[in-house]
C-alpha cells in the first residue's frame, strides 16, 4: 500500500507541473530555468551588482539570481548615501568593485609611481618564471590586446623570450594612463607608438579604463592581463569585457592574485594602490569558462611576496 500511495502522489505532482507549464507560462521560468546569458547582455542585476558570464555578483546587502533580494537592509541604507569601504566588501567574492573616487586615487598613484621610480620593466622575470617562459602559449597570437599594459607592457617580455617565435598580427595596448606614460615615463616601451624593437607590428594605443571595452565583441584572438584587476574600478565588468571580446577558442593569458587570506580593514584603508581584492571564488568562476592550458597556482613568484594567486593560460570554451 505504501508503494502505491507514493506512486500516486508522484503522478499527481507531475500532472500539476504539466498543467502549470501549459497554462501558467510564467512559472516555467522556475520549473525550467532559461539558459544563462553568458554575454550578460540580458542581465543588469537590478543595478545592484554586475553580471559575469551569466551570474550576478551582487553588492553587499543584496542576493538572488538577479540581485532582487535585499538581505541586509542596514548595509543598504548606509551605502545609499555613502561610499564607505564596507559598501564594497562581499564575504564570498571579496572586493570586486569600488567607488569611482577610490579608483581615481589608485590610477593617479600608479601614474605617479612610474614617473618617480625610473625602471625599464615591471617584474618581467617573476612573470616569465610564473608562466614557465610561456612554453604552453601558442606562437600565433593573431590580433592581441594587453589590458593594463603599464608603461613597459608584458607583451614585450613575451616577444623577447629566447627560442620562442611569437607572431602578433595586430597589437592593442590598453591602459587608462597610457598617454601619461608615453609623455612622462622615460623608458616607456611604446613611447613612439609601437613596441621598441618591434615597430613592424601594427599597434593601437588606447588610453581608457578597461571597463570601457564593453563594445568589443569577438574582436581579439589573444588577451593578456597580468596583475591588473587589483588596480581597477569594477573587476567583474572587466572580466566580462574580456569574455565578450575574446573570440571563440581565443587565448587568455591571465596572472592574478586572490585575497582570501590577505584582507584586513586596516591594511586595506592604507593601500590606495590596490582597491580591488577579489577572492578565489570569483577567479574560479571566471577561469572555469576556459579550457586550461597552463595553471601554476601559488607559484613562488607570488609566494615570495606573501601572496596567493595563479598564472593561467586558457582557451575560451565554445559554449552554447
From TrEMBL:
> Which segments constitute the EGF-like domain?
56-67
Pfam family example for this protein? Answer: Methyltransf_23
Q: Which PROSITE patterns match?
A: EGF_1, EGF_2
Query: By its UniProt entry, which InterPro entries does this protein fall under?
Result: EGF (IPR000742), SAM-dependent_MTases_sf (IPR029063)
Q: What is this protein called?
A: EGF-like domain-containing protein
- Which species is this UniProt entry from? Rotaria magnacalcarata
Amino acid at each position: 500500500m505504501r508503494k502505491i500511495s507514493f506512486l500516486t502522489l508522484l503522478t499527481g505532482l507531475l500532472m500539476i507541473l504539466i498543467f502549470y507549464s501549459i497554462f501558467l507560462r510564467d512559472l516555467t521560468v522556475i520549473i525550467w530555468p532559461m539558459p544563462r546569458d553568458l554575454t550578460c547582455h540580458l542581465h543588469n542585476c537590478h543595478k545592484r551588482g554586475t553580471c559575469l558570464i551569466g551570474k550576478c555578483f551582487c553588492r553587499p546587502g543584496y542576493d538572488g539570481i538577479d540581485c532582487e533580494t535585499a538581505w541586509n537592509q542596514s548595509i543598504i541604507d548606509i551605502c545609499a548615501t555613502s561610499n564607505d569601504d564596507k559598501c564594497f566588501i562581499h564575504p564570498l567574492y571579496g572586493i570586486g568593485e569600488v567607488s569611482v573616487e577610490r579608483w581615481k586615487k589608485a590610477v593617479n598613484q600608479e601614474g605617479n609611481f612610474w614617473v618617480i621610480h625610473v625602471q625599464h620593466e615591471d617584474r618581467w622575470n617573476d612573470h616569465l618564471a610564473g608562466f614557465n617562459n610561456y612554453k604552453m602559449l601558442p606562437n600565433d597570437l593573431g590580433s592581441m590586446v594587453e589590458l593594463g599594459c603599464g608603461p613597459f607592457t608584458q607583451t614585450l617580455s613575451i616577444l623577447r623570450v629566447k627560442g620562442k617565435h611569437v607572431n602578433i598580427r595586430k597589437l592593442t595596448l590598453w591602459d587608462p594612463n597610457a598617454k601619461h606614460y608615453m609623455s612622462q615615463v622615460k623608458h616607456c616601451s611604446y613611447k613612439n607608438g609601437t613596441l621598441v624593437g618591434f615597430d613592424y607590428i601594427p599597434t593601437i594605443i588606447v588610453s581608457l579604463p578597461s571597463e570601457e571595452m564593453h563594445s568589443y565583441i569577438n574582436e581579439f584572438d589573444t588577451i593578456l592581463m597580468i596583475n591588473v584587476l587589483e588596480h581597477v574600478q569594477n573587476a567583474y565588468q572587466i572580466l566580462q569585457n574580456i569574455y565578450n571580446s575574446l573570440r571563440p577558442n581565443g587565448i587568455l593569458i591571465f596572472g592574478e592574485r586572490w585575497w582570501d587570506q590577505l584582507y584586513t580593514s586596516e591594511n586595506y584603508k592604507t593601500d590606495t594602490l590596490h582597491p580591488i581584492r577579489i577572492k578565489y571564488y570569483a577567479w574560479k568562476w571566471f577561469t572555469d569558462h576556459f579550457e586550461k592550458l597552463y595553471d601554476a597556482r601559488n607559484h613562488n613568484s607570488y609566494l615570495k611576496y606573501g601572496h596567493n594567486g595563479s598564472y593561467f593560460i586558457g582557451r575560451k570554451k565554445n559554449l552554447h
